[in-house]
Amino acid sequence: MSEDSVVEDIESEVEEAPEDEIIVLAQKWKRKRGSLIMALHELQGRLGYVPRESAMKLGREMGVPLANIYEVLTFYNYFKLESPGKYIISVCTGTACHIKGSPKLLHGIEDELGIKEGESTPDGEYHLQGVRCLGCCGLAPLASVNGKVYGKQDVTNAHGLLEQVGHDQPMHVAAEAADAE
Amino acid sequence: MKPEELEVKAAAELAKQQAMEVRLVCCSSTGCQSSGAADIVARLKADLAAKGLEGKVQVGGTGCMGLCSKGPLVRMTSKAHEDILFSEMTPDLATRLVDEVIAPIAGGEKLDDPVGALGAHVVDLHAAFFAMQERVVLSNNGHADPEKLADYLVHGGYQGLRKALSMSAEEICQEVLASGLRGRGGAGYPTGLKWDFARRMQSDVKYVICNGDEGDPGAFMDRSVLEGDPHAVLEGMMIAARAMNATNGVFYIRAEYPLAVDRIEKAIRQARQAGLVGRNILNSGWSFDFDVRLGAGAFVCGEETALIASVEGKRGTPRPRPPFPSVKGLWDKPSCVNNVETLANVPRILLKGAEWFAAKGTEKSKGTKVFALTGKIAHNGLVEVPMGITIREIVETIGGGTGTDRKVKGVQTGGPSGGMIPESQFDTPISYEHLQQLGSMMGSGGLIVIDDHDSVVELARFYLDFCVDESCGKCAPCRIGGTQMLHLLDKIVAGDGTEEDIANIRMIAQAMQKGSLCALGQTAPNPVLSALKHFSSEFTERLKKPVAAEA
Lengths: 181, 551
Prior knowledge:
The complex is a heterodimer.
Chain A: H1 21-30, H2 36-47, H3 52-62, H4 66-75, E1 87-92, H5 95-99, H6 102-113, E2 126-131, E3 143-145, E4 148-150, H7 158-165, H8 169-180
Parallel strand pairs in A: 1-2
Antiparallel strand pairs in A: 1-3, 3-4
Chain B: H1 3-18, E1 22-27, H2 30-34, H3 37-50, E2 57-62, E3 74-78, E4 84-86, H4 91-106, E5 122-123, H5 128-131, H6 149-154, H7 159-165, H8 169-179, H9 191-200, E6 207-212, H10 221-228, H11 230-244, E7 248-253, H12 258-273, E8 289-294, H13 304-311, E9 335-339, H14 340-352, H15 354-358, E10 368-375, E11 381-386, H16 391-398, E12 408-413, E13 419-422, H17 432-437, E14 446-451, H18 456-470, H19 476-493, H20 499-515, H21 519-523, H22 526-534, H23 536-542
C-alpha cells in the first residue's frame, strides 16, 4: 500500500477487461501490496467457493506461490474449497442464538436435509453450515439463506425455516428419488 | 471544499428538512433490514407519492435505534407533534400510517391522537429503555441517514476534523488524553497515550487502522456504529491520523458484515467527492486516504498483531510484543490500531471538548459505553449508557429483566474473553476496573443475560469450545492447554468429572494466562474460571457421584 499514491482509486487501474476474469482480478489486485485475501474474497464472491484450478491460476497471475494461497484459504473460516450448493443455509451459533436454542435448530435442519453441518445435499441444492455470529443478536435465534437473514426462528420447527425460504420441495423430492433407486 | 462550506452545506440540508411537515426515518441496519425495513420504506414512498405528499414528507433511513427485536422501527418527526417511534411495522401498517396519521398532519392538522389505530405499535420514547441511556456514539442513530453526507454535516459532522486541522499533533493527543477516553475494544488503554507513542515515532509512512473485526459472538456494537454512522468513524480516523502524522488509513472489517463494508465504502466515496478525503483536505494542504480490507472469519484477528498480518494478506497469527505496532506495525511501519467505537467518540471529543467528555462516567472510566444486550432479556438490542451505571440498572431497568417468569441468573460480559457475573453482584458499577475485579472484563460490549434454566457449566464449555476452535495454533499454551481443558470440561458436562479434574482445569488456566502469546489464549480461561468462582456448586453437582461401597 505504501507505494501506491495516496489518493489512488483502485477502480481506475483496470482499463480494459481481458476475457478471463481471473486475469482481470489478478491485475486489479496484484499491484496492491498484501491484497491476496481481497483477491480471494472477490474470487469466492463470483464462484461461491475457490476451486483448485482457479487458485492455481490466480497464483500464477499474481505471482503468489500456491502454498501461500492455501495457507490463507485453510486458515480463514470464510473461504470454501468446495462448491457449497445452490442454497447456503447458515445457522447462527453465536452466544445469543446459542442461549435461545440454536443447536436445536441446527440439528433439526440436519435431520430435515439428511446431512450434517458443513455438508451439502447430494443434489447440490443445499449446503448447511453453522456460523459464528451474524450480528443480529436482537433477532436471535436466527439463520440466513444465501445472505438473507431470517430472525426469531422457532427452534423446534426446522421445517418452518425451510418453508420460509420457499424451497423445501426439492430435497424431499430428491430424498424420495434416492429411496426409489 | 473550503472549511466554511461545511456550514453552508449543513444549513442548506437543515433548511430542506425543516421545510418538511413530517420526517420519517426507518432503521436501515442489518437487524431491521432482515425484518423487512426495505418493504416499509418502499410502501411509505409509494403511498406518499400517490397522495402527492413527496414535497411535504421526507422518508429516509437511519442507524440502529436499539430495539432490534421489535423491528422494523420507524421514527416520525413533525412540527405539530412530539417524536413518535413505531415498532414492528408491516407494509399494511405503513399504508395506514400514511392514510390516518401522516396525510392529516401534512395537511396542517394537529391531531388529538396522532397515533390513532397504530397505538399498539407505539414505543414510549420516555420509557426507561431510552430515558436511562446517554447517547454520544449513537447520537445520530434515529436522526441522520447514514448514507447521506449532508445529514451528517447537519449534526456537526467534520467539524471535529476542522478543529483538529487547526491544532498541532501534540495538542490533539493531549486533548484526547485529557478526555480520559480509553480503548473500547476491551483492554481499555488510554487512547491519547497510544496515539502519542505513534506520534513520537519518526517515519515517512504511518498507518491508522480501524479494527472492525467484531468477532465476539453475541455482540454487534461495532456493526451498528459502522452501519449507522460511518462518517463518524471516518472522521475519527482522520483526527487520529492528524494526531500521529499518519499517512494512510486502513479499515479492517469482518466479511460477515457486508452492509457495514458497503456503508464505509460509500462514506469514503462521498467524503472523497466532497474534498473531505483525498488531497488537500478542507484546503489545509493535508492529504489522506483510506483502504478497506475484509476479514475472513478469524476471531484471533481482533488481536492487533494478528490483524496487521491479515491486512498484509497473510494468515492472521499474532507475534510477540514488543515491538508494539506503534513502533513496528503494518509493513513494519509505525501503526496504530483503534476500535470502531473508540474512533466514533473522537469527533465528539474534539467538537465538544475534553472536559465535556470527562464529565461523564467514573473517575477512571470516562464517557459512555455501547452494549449489545441479548440473551434472556425482555428488551433485546443496542444500548449506550454512561460508565458507572450499575449492571442491575442495565439488566433490570433498561433491559426489563427476563420478560418471563424465570429469574435472571447472571450476565456474561466480554464474550469468550470475559466472564460470568452472578446476579448477587449486579450492583457493581460498569467500569474497566470493577468488571476486572469480578473476574470479567469490559470487552467490546457484549452483555448476555442468562436465566435460572441456563447451565453455567455448559455456557463456559460453549465459550471454551469457541476459543479452542479459533486458536491459531501458533503457541503451545493456547493450542494444547485449551484442548486439554475442553476435554476436562466435556468430562464434567457428561457427569464423569472428578475434583481432580477441576484442580487440573485451574492449573491449565494459569499456564494459559501466563504463557500464551496473545490475548486470545491469555483470556480464554476467563469464562471457565469466573464460572468456577461464582457458580462452583453447579460444577460440583455435576461431578461423578462416588459409588457407595457395597455392604
